[in-house]
């Protein structure tokens, strides 16, 4: 009779451990990863300027201005490195690997982008 009591006790312990493990795994699987998987977004700005950025700049500079092609393409604090006029000239005339956009964008659109980017510090 005692041998059955030990067997039942062992079975209860095993069941409790299995239940605990299942609960821990379930809790871990349900972890919200939306913040981890969220794509970076560009800082707030005028809707038309953000639209210009998305249609002309995002492929190289990234959704959050983080730069997709090396440190030179990181625009997150470009306003602390370049003046608005320098940024406008870079957009218009291009650079080492950056294409000139003066044939695709109007002077007003270039100025809007430059003004917005110059405010990023």
UniProtKB/TrEMBL annotation:
<protein>
    <submittedName>
        <fullName>Cytochrome c</fullName>
    </submittedName>
</protein>
<dbReference type="GO" id="GO:0020037">
    <property type="term" value="F:heme binding"/>
</dbReference>
<feature type="domain" description="Cytochrome c">
    <location>
        <begin position="40"/>
        <end position="121"/>
    </location>
</feature>
<dbReference type="InterPro" id="IPR036909">
    <property type="entry name" value="Cyt_c-like_dom_sf"/>
</dbReference>
<keyword id="KW-0349">Heme</keyword>
<dbReference type="GO" id="GO:0046872">
    <property type="term" value="F:metal ion binding"/>
</dbReference>
<dbReference type="InterPro" id="IPR009056">
    <property type="entry name" value="Cyt_c-like_dom"/>
</dbReference>
<dbReference type="Pfam" id="PF13442">
    <property type="entry name" value="Cytochrome_CBB3"/>
</dbReference>
<dbReference type="GO" id="GO:0009055">
    <property type="term" value="F:electron transfer activity"/>
</dbReference>
<keyword id="KW-0732">Signal</keyword>
<keyword id="KW-0813">Transport</keyword>
<keyword id="KW-0249">Electron transport</keyword>
<keyword id="KW-0408">Iron</keyword>
<feature type="signal peptide">
    <location>
        <begin position="1"/>
        <end position="27"/>
    </location>
</feature>
<dbReference type="InterPro" id="IPR051811">
    <property type="entry name" value="Cytochrome_c550/c551-like"/>
</dbReference>
<keyword id="KW-0479">Metal-binding</keyword>
């Amino acid at each position: 009779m005692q041998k059955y009591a030990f067997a039942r006790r062992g079975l209860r312990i095993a069941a409790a451990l299995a239940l605990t493990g299942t609960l821990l795994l379930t809790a871990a699987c349900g972890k919200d990863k939306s913040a981890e998987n969220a794509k970076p977004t560009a800082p707030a700005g005028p809707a038309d300027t953000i639209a210009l950025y998305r249609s002309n700049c995002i492929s190289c500079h990234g959704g959050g201005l983080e730069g997709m092609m090396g440190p030179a393409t990181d625009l997150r604090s470009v306003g602390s490195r370049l003046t608005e006029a320098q940024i406008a000239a870079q957009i218009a005339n291009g650079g080492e690997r950056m294409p000139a956009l003066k044939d695709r964008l109007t002077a007003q659109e270039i100025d809007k982008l430059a003004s917005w980017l110059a405010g990023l510090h």
